[in-house]
């Protein structure tokens, strides 16, 4: 009888422990992580993947929970934001709810705020409302981020939208999306960048303007720092930047070169007609272009163009040499 009683106690204890682990155990991964369920993944596969990612302690606990709660056929494909700090019931509640699926949205370096908005709209988010916030940001949003410390009061947020891959829940609002992007901008643009800019008697806003032009003009790191040196030197000697990228921003085209009539376009963003930097960024630059803007490379060059066939940047020292290159490359 003593042995039988001990066995019963052991069984009850084991059952209690098992149920406690099913309901209250945690995984080893304590940070947030995107977890993906692909169409066709079975319950066993999902459980094993959750355990492998450190989101649960044991896939058997997970399988028991979904089976005992009638959830075996209710796991919904998609991408979810999970953490090992969650319990199995909490995780199950999320991955069986299609409203908790996260959309993976990628914004490309050099895109304008309008292109960001169009991409958001293609995923069913409020792109127009997002763009309205970018053009006229509420003071409540601006005050939350240190990256805006030297932003002119009336400036829009063009240039401050850090290009990256983001995950947004189906329920995300335009304001929530904008804040998530700006949190990343704050993280990426460390205080070191602002400090270096200040040491150069430049504002972060000016660096972003220059970076936004560099982003649209050239594609390699080596070319970026050279073009940065050319542009900053032109400003120093009082020469217009003469960037076709600023005209593209005004005209909304994709032309690498523009006609004489287009060069005369009346706009403060026309860097052929106006010296110095335009009044604001013309795109949202990536980190490489921002670094190039703050670390220009001195050279003997003062002109450059891009070979339309290869994309190679051709540099020249004098205007006459530049004209020869334009004829050579059909520009």
Describe this structure in words.
This protein has 15 helices and six strands. The protein has 331 residues and is mostly helical. The strands form three sheets. Strands 1-2 form a two-stranded antiparallel sheet. A two-stranded antiparallel sheet has the order 3-4. It has a two-stranded antiparallel sheet with strand order 5-6. Helix 1 crosses helix 3, helix 2 runs antiparallel to helix 3 and helix 10 crosses helix 11. The longest helix has 23 residues. The radius of gyration is 27 Å and the shape is elongated.
Fraction of residues in β-strands: 5-15%
Beta strand count: 6
Distance between the termini: 99 Å
Number of helices: 15
Q: Tell me the structural class.
A: mainly alpha
Residue share in helix: 40-55%
| SSE arrangement, N to C | HEHHEHEHHHEHHHHHHHEEH
Rounded to an integer in angstroms, the radius of gyration calculated over CA atoms is 27 Å
Search tags:
two-stranded antiparallel ribbon, 3 domains, mainly alpha, two-stranded antiparallel sheet, single chain, 331 residues, 15 helices, Dna Ligase, domain 1, 48% helix
Annotate the secondary structure layout:
Blueprint: H1 2-24, E1 32-37, H2 43-52, H3 59-68, E2 78-83, H4 88-95, E3 102-106, H5 113-122, H6 127-135, H7 139-142, E4 165-169, H8 174-188, H9 191-199, H10 204-217, H11 221-237, H12 244-251, H13 260-263, H14 287-294, E5 303-306, E6 313-316, H15 319-328
Antiparallel strand pairs: 1-2, 3-4, 5-6
Helix pairs in contact: 1-3, 2-3, 5-6, 6-8, 10-11, 10-14, 11-14
